[in-house]
Design goal:
Strand content: 15-25%
Number of strands: 13
CATH superfamily of the largest domain: Methyl-accepting chemotaxis protein
Shape: rod-shaped
Largest sheet: 8 strands, antiparallel
Number of domains: 2
Structural class: alpha+beta
Radius of gyration: 52 Å
């Protein structure tokens, strides 16, 4: 969960006159001191929670990095598999080309076998025609009986047997050639079909592997985005931790000053009434003092709050261009001093990408904490500690996410948080 960013600086600054007899500015308040201590406890708890969030962010980042390594390892495996598949595809392509060469050779052989078969067919047709015309086996008997001697008879028997055997051999060869022709045709077709199927399977595997790599690339990109978000979240938490640490210091200082005020009030109460007119009435700010670069300052108004800068109200509080404007803008064409809107303690003075040169001050009055924000300044004249109402803390500028010289001023009832849920319209509290 996101924890609120507390920027608590408490109005506990007192002039020396506060400690002089008869000049106590505010009644001693044990309740106020208790509130401050409770707030310190609250901030300590919040700081512990933020520290836990930072540890969780670190663990998340480490987990994402481990996932990234796993994805990279898987990608390497897939790259190797694709390389192996490409090698096999090349081999099969070469085998297909070789097989096609063999097919051409087999086609030549098939043509030769076909020619032999056709010749035998023609010869067998002639034999059959002659056999039919001459009465079949009677012709062979005429040959045998026409022998003039027994020896010639034997010779003619052998010749007839040879002719019959030759006819049978032709028939056998014809049958074998036909069978061989069919086998070679089937072999060629099977070999080619097998190679083409293997090539198609390898192509499909390559497409699948490329698809898996694309998925791994998407996963890796998603993990990188998650890592960037986790780092941003960690940076935000670290910034919260810095602000909480500054709050702790501000609260501790406010507690110390309140204890001093209570002690001074008690001491003043013990003094005899005859001493009430003695002593010095001079005082000091009790905190950081700022030096201005211009004398154009608003008059310090009566009451708790005062206007923080001279200039025109260029933008009000509320929705602006579809976004929530959490404060008011006071613009001026020249650099003018920026004043603390009330007594308080600086909890943060830093340079921000959005706020530019900015200062956070938190105030305490009538049991309520308020936080004021002063942004886009050219210079910051205070860094920490207590400030007085109307004290110059900086100079108007145009730093950070700003368009034109102005002071962006926010007022929060309670602590400042990232969502700015405590922001209120300053015009309801401060005369502008």
């Amino acid at each position: 969960m996101k924890h609120s960013i507390y920027t608590i600086s408490l109005a506990a600054t007192l002039t020396l006159a506060t400690f002089l007899p008869g000049l106590v500015a505010e009644p001693a308040s044990a309740s106020k001191l208790s509130d401050l201590k409770n707030q310190k406890t609250h901030i300590t708890q919040e700081k512990s929670a933020v520290s836990s969030d930072i540890n969780e962010a670190d663990q998340k980042i480490n987990s994402i990095k481990n996932d990234q390594e796993s994805v990279k390892t898987e990608k390497q495996r897939l790259d190797l598999a694709i390389g192996d598949t490409n090698t096999k595809l090349l081999q099969k392509s070469q085998e297909i080309e070789t097989t096609k060469g063999e097919i051409l050779q087999l086609q030549t052989e098939v043509q030769q076998i076909t020619e032999r078969i056709n010749k035998r067919n023609e010869m067998l047709k002639n034999r059959a025609r002659s056999f039919q015309e001459n009465g079949g086996m009677v012709n062979y008997m005429d040959v045998l009986m026409g022998a003039q001697s027994f020896g010639e008879f034997i010779d003619r028997v052998g010749a007839v047997a040879t002719l019959v055997e030759a006819d049978q051999g032709i028939l056998r060869q014809q049958k074998q050639d036909k069978q061989l022709l069919e086998e070679k045709q089937v072999q060629v077709q099977n070999d080619l079909a097998s190679l083409e199927k293997m090539a198609r399977d390898l192509d499909a595997l390559k497409i699948s592997l490329n698809g898996q790599i694309a998925q791994q690339d998407q996963l890796l990109a998603s993990l990188q985005q998650q890592e960037e978000e986790a780092h941003a979240e960690k940076l935000e938490k670290e910034e919260q931790a810095e602000i909480l640490a500054a709050q702790q210091a501000a609260i501790q200082q406010a507690i110390k000053m309140e204890e001093q005020r209570i002690a001074a009030a008690a001491e003043a109460a013990k003094q005899p009434q005859s001493n009430s007119g003695s002593g010095s009435t001079s005082g000091s700010s009790g905190g950081n003092t700022g030096g201005g670069t211009s004398t154009a300052t608003p008059g310090v108004s009566s009451g708790y709050w005062t206007k923080p800068a001279v200039g025109r109200l260029s933008s009000g509080f509320g929705m602006r261009g579809g976004e929530f404007h959490a404060g008011v803008d006071i613009a001026n064409s020249v650099s003018v001093p920026i004043l603390a809107a009330a007594d308080g303690v600086v909890s943060r003075s830093y340079s921000s990408k959005t706020y530019g040169e900015c200062i956070f001050i938190t105030h305490y009055t009538n049991g309520q904490i308020y936080t004021t924000v002063y942004a886009h300044m050219t210079t910051r004249l205070v860094g920490s500690g207590a400030v007085k109402k109307g004290q110059q803390i900086g100079t108007m500028g145009n730093t950070g996410a700003s368009q034109g010289q102005h002071l962006h001023f926010e007022l929060h009832v309670g602590e400042w948080n990232q969502a700015k849920s405590n922001a209120v319209n300053p015009l309801n509290y401060i005369p502008m």
